[in-house]
Amino acid sequence: MTSSVEHPVLIGVEGNIATLTLNRPAKLNALNYATIDGIQRHLDTIERDDAIRIVILTGAGDKAFSAGADIAGFSSSVEAGVTTAMREFVGRGQALTKRVENFPKPIIAAVNGIAFGGGCEVVEACPLAIASEHARFAKPEINLGFPPPFGGTQRLPRHIGRKRALQLILTGDSISAEEAARIGLINEVVPASRLLERTRELATTIIGKSSVAVRACLASVTRGINLSIDEGLAVEANQFAQMVHTSDIREGINAFLERRPANFSGH
């Protein structure tokens, strides 16, 4: 990976794992338009590459995953009026978190420092998240006079409950990584020195599973979580039906019956 102000998002591929690094450490990896667009472009490339099975998303340096949206960058969009603000700022941000949430390959956030505002919203959209012990999370948009615009008012209550979410959203207060794990915003907390190592361990475990089953699990949970239970069960059944004719389901069942490790082909 190369580091340059011209590359606000770095990509590195090792084996089946792609690592995307938000690369604006001097700005605490704030999400400007170039960064948002860069993540989207890299995800497009990763989706087309069948050799890449999983994505790790992290930030450069040890201070911040992302401090949120770049205020200086989007203020001119707000000044231009509702139509421009909605198209350039809100639309772009929501498209990013929706893409992350619905990506067909798992994205694990490796939260290496503060995840505030839009940075926290990206973490909320990731299927999995591991944080370093000094990471902190906050929804400070209220202090700027607007509600979280990248999906935070919708995803956060679904993760941690309405009352906990509203306390964070209405106060702008930050919480520790330990508290974030306790309430279900992230999966676990590790020492900073082990963050990427532990994230890669989790990624490697998932890579050992059937890639088509992993996609089906992601789709079932992501699509079903906002539906009624009956509608969600229909999504689940449909995803299972798509697995019935795959070699992976036969391999998984045969391996279990034969008491041996499964060797999934991914088809």
Give me a quick take on this structure.
The chain has helices spanning 33-48, 71-79, 82-102, 118-125, 152-160, 162-171, 177-183, 195-207, 211-224, 229-243, 247-257, and strands spanning 9-14, 17-22, 54-59, 64-66, 107-111, 114-116, 128-132, 136-138, 174-176, 188-190.
Helices and strands in order:
Layout: E1 9-14, E2 17-22, H1 33-48, E3 54-59, E4 64-66, H2 71-79, H3 82-102, E5 107-111, E6 114-116, H4 118-125, E7 128-132, E8 136-138, H5 152-160, H6 162-171, E9 174-176, H7 177-183, E10 188-190, H8 195-207, H9 211-224, H10 229-243, H11 247-257
Parallel strand pairs: 2-3, 3-5, 4-6, 5-7, 6-8, 7-10
Antiparallel strand pairs: 1-2, 8-9
Report on the structure:
There is one protein chain. It is built from 11 helices and 10 strands. The chain has helices at residues 33-48, 71-79, 82-102, 118-125, 152-160, 162-171, 177-183, 195-207, 211-224, 229-243, 247-257, and strands at residues 9-14, 17-22, 54-59, 64-66, 107-111, 114-116, 128-132, 136-138, 174-176, 188-190. The strands form 2 sheets. The chain has a 6-stranded mixed sheet with strand order 1-2-3-5-7-10, sandwiched between helices. The chain has a 4-stranded mixed sheet with strand order 4-6-8-9. It starts with 8 loop residues before the first strand and ends in a 10-residue tail after the last helix.
